[in-house]
């Protein structure tokens, strides 16, 4: 019976193995690091002829094939901007009579690798310039992967919008958009290199198609760089961290070496950055390593002197890395071992842990770090110590710097508890106060923290009706805008101007038409200037970011976009944003902080981009740049109140210290008593010995004297 059972079990096992052998696929071949997901191939036979919509470019590192794209109904050409027409030929905006429409061909090269994949042995190491394209010819038809990030952490209006790009560590790609690849030296176009934003935590070059901007007559390059822990994790020394900054610098070197093949002028590069990209541009201006890689710079909604944009203390960067290691189970006692342990973890584990680790100081865990090499020192210190007029800043190039009037709306969009349910009305007084307290804590305001919070609340309270939630939300946005953007950007503009850069500042006050995409309360929101710069109101959904597809822009939006992008076109071409027949926009002066108030309306002229004004929100700027630092350093006669959580820990610590001190005192008393008793007993024994010795001595003395002197009295023993 047992034999039949065994035979039956064996038969079933054999049948199961045979079935599995049919359904289990063959082992996969080794993963191609250039195409790990098996997407459309980037290679084709060399002898295959180009299609009608393709274009080939020959580089020293290999041949590259891109595509031709036709943009229609544009009011400009690559070689003629409407703002450069003589005044009689221009008129007021007319909704029924738009300017002449043109069809323009733009040549695109997407997903072009500029460095070796930063994976395996190249993970968390400086980038290596690519020496040879992975295939010849290389098909640059599709965007490369976005750098590793938590895509759910994006501060977007549509927080539940799925992310359309692959996220991977192999991400060092750039995208090129050219109006004409056949241009030769002397007639080539200037180049605009764009670094995306995302607070060094999220974002991708793929999110900002440059077709429309390239049709304005410039070669546009958008660049990916490493983010978060994989881009900025550091042990606080000069040999680790700042990989994202190094990626950007390597991309600029690649552009210098190869952009001429795309019709661009390698000596005419303007580097443009938004948000974290703007901070990066400022860092490159202060770095000798980036010298001669660009001739002008444009900074949008960010400043390198902002406390929230970098880590100035290497010890903090070191601690953040150790904290990440603990969340990943790396608890070794040696920092180098913790680093190697983190290296062994998967991409997803590192990204998720970075999001989960609580941030105690600053806004984010991993940021550019002062290392003495890529970032020589505290940017504010460097700028403050630059000689007036003759700058010690290595790249004191012409600078265009600006922001959106409501950039701080980003803070609300980042709060998933609000954004997930689109319940942005919950920004009330309690929320405002709690965020102000968190701001003071993360800014490491250890002295007068409560006074600082009260000063912020007092400054931004709508006193006619403090309980008005609409007013509270608007005040909160103004607070966040001033703290994170207005104050540091104004300070950066002033310092760069003083250090020798011819600096032009703008403030975008134009509100895009209310079309269901941007809520009315956001005003001139975060990234609104990018929508205008890249010309998205002028192009179809195929050439817009994924989150702008389906948005119905109006004729006013298109004209505002035309004016705003003309400002940048003039700056990229001539390092001066003034229109040809309008020179009213003055550069900053030490005591006159001029700026352009950009705000287009039905009654605006297409020849005037805005109104030049002075000292943008100077009282708010002084509050953050002068009053708050003074309040931090002000010594009060009483100690500030302590937070409840800290008070509990302090009380526990005090009790422990008291118990330890009491036990120590008890031990000292006990030891002293014991020592006293020992001394007493020793002294008594000594006294008794002395007494016996004296008695014996006396007896001997008396005995000796009585023998020699019969009159000497004898004392008899009793």
UniProtKB/TrEMBL annotation:
<keyword id="KW-0472">Membrane</keyword>
<keyword id="KW-0732">Signal</keyword>
<keyword id="KW-0812">Transmembrane</keyword>
<dbReference type="InterPro" id="IPR019819">
    <property type="entry name" value="Carboxylesterase_B_CS"/>
</dbReference>
<feature type="domain" description="Carboxylesterase type B">
    <location>
        <begin position="101"/>
        <end position="602"/>
    </location>
</feature>
<dbReference type="InterPro" id="IPR029058">
    <property type="entry name" value="AB_hydrolase_fold"/>
</dbReference>
<dbReference type="InterPro" id="IPR051093">
    <property type="entry name" value="Neuroligin/BSAL"/>
</dbReference>
<dbReference type="InterPro" id="IPR002018">
    <property type="entry name" value="CarbesteraseB"/>
</dbReference>
<protein>
    <submittedName>
        <fullName>Neuroligin-like protein glit-1</fullName>
    </submittedName>
</protein>
<dbReference type="Pfam" id="PF00135">
    <property type="entry name" value="COesterase"/>
</dbReference>
<keyword id="KW-1133">Transmembrane helix</keyword>
<comment type="similarity">
    <text>Belongs to the type-B carboxylesterase/lipase family.</text>
</comment>
<feature type="transmembrane region" description="Helical">
    <location>
        <begin position="655"/>
        <end position="679"/>
    </location>
</feature>
<feature type="signal peptide">
    <location>
        <begin position="1"/>
        <end position="21"/>
    </location>
</feature>
């Amino acid at each position: 019976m047992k034999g039949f059972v065994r035979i039956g079990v064996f038969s079933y096992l054999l049948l199961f193995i045979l079935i599995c052998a049919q359904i289990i696929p063959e082992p996969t071949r080794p993963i191609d690091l250039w195409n790990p997901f098996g997407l459309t191939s980037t290679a084709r036979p060399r002898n295959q002829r180009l299609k009608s919509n393709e274009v080939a470019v020959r580089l020293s590192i290999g041949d590259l094939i891109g595509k031709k794209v036709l943009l229609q109904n544009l009011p400009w050409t690559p070689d003629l901007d409407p703002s450069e027409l003589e005044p009689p030929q221009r008129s007021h905006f007319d909704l029924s009579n738009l300017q002449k429409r043109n069809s323009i061909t733009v040549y695109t090269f997407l997903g072009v690798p500029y460095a070796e994949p930063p994976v395996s042995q190249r993970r968390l190491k400086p980038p290596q310039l690519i020496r040879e394209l992975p295939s010849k010819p290389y098909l640059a038809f599709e965007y490369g992967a976005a750098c590793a990030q938590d895509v759910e952490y994006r501060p977007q209006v549509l927080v539940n919008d799925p992310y359309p790009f692959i996220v991977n560590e192999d991400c060092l790609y750039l995208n090129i958009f050219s109006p004409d690849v056949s241009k030769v030296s002397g007639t080539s176009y200037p180049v605009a290199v764009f670094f995306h934003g995302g607070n060094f935590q999220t974002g991708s070059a793929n999110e900002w198609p440059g077709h429309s901007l390239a049709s304005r007559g410039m070669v546009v390059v958008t660049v990916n760089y490493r983010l978060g822990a994989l881009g900025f994790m550091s042990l606080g020394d000069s040999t680790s961290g700042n990989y994202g900054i190094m990626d950007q610098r390597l991309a600029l070197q690649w552009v210098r070496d190869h952009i001429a093949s795309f019709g661009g002028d390698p000596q005419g590069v303007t580097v443009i950055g938004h948000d974290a990209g703007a901070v990066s541009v400022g860092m490159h201006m202060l770095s000798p390593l980036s010298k001669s890689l660009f001739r002008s710079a444009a900074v949008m909604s960010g400043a390198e002197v902002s406390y929230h944009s970098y880590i100035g203390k290497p010890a903090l960067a070191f601690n953040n890395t150790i904290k990440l290691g603990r969340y990943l189970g790396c608890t070794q006692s040696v920092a180098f071992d913790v680093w190697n342990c983190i290296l062994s973890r998967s991409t997803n584990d590192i990204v998720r842990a970075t999001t989960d680790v609580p941030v105690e100081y600053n806004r984010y865990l991993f940021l550019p770090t002062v290392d003495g090499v890529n970032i020589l020192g505290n940017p504010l210190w460097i700028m403050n110590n630059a000689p007036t007029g003759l700058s010690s800043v290595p790249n004191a190039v012409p600078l265009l710097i600006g922001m959106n009037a409501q950039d701080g709306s980003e803070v609300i969009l980042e709060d998933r508890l609000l954004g997930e349910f689109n319940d942005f009305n919950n920004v009330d007084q309690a929320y405002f106060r709690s965020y102000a307290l968190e701001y003071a804590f993360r800014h490491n305001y250890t002295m007068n923290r409560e006074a600082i919070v009260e000063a912020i609340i007092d400054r931004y309270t709508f006193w006619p009706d403090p309980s008005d939630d609409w007013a509270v939300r608007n005040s909160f946005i103004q607070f966040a805008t001033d703290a994170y953007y207005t104050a540091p950007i104004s300070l950066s503009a002033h310092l760069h101007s003083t250090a020798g850069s011819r600096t032009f500042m703008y403030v975008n006050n134009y509100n895009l038409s209310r079309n269901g995409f941007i809520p009315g309360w956001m005003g001139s929101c975060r990234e609104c200037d990018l929508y205008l710069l890249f010309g998205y109101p002028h192009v179809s959904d195929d050439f817009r970011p994924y989150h702008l597809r389906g948005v119905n822009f109006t004729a006013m939006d298109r004209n505002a976009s035309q004016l705003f992008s003309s400002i940048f076109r003039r700056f990229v071409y001539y390092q001066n944003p003034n229109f040809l027949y309008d020179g009213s926009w003055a550069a900053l002066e030490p005591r006159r902080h001029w700026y352009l108030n950009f705000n287009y309306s039905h009654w605006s002229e297409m020849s005037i981009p805005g109104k030049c004004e002075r000292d943008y929100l100077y009282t708010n700027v002084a509050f953050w740049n002068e009053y708050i630092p003074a309040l931090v350093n002000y010594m009060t006669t009483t100690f500030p109140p302590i937070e409840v959580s800290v008070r509990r820990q302090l009380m526990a610590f005090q009790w422990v210290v008291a118990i330890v001190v009491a036990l120590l005192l008890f031990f000292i008393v006990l030891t002293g008593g014991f020592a006293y008793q020992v001394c007493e007993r020793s002294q008594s024994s000594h006294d008794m010995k002395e007494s016996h010795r004296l008695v014996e001595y006396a007896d001997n003395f008396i005995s000796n004297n009585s023998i020699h002197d019969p009159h000497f009295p004898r004392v008899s023993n009793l």
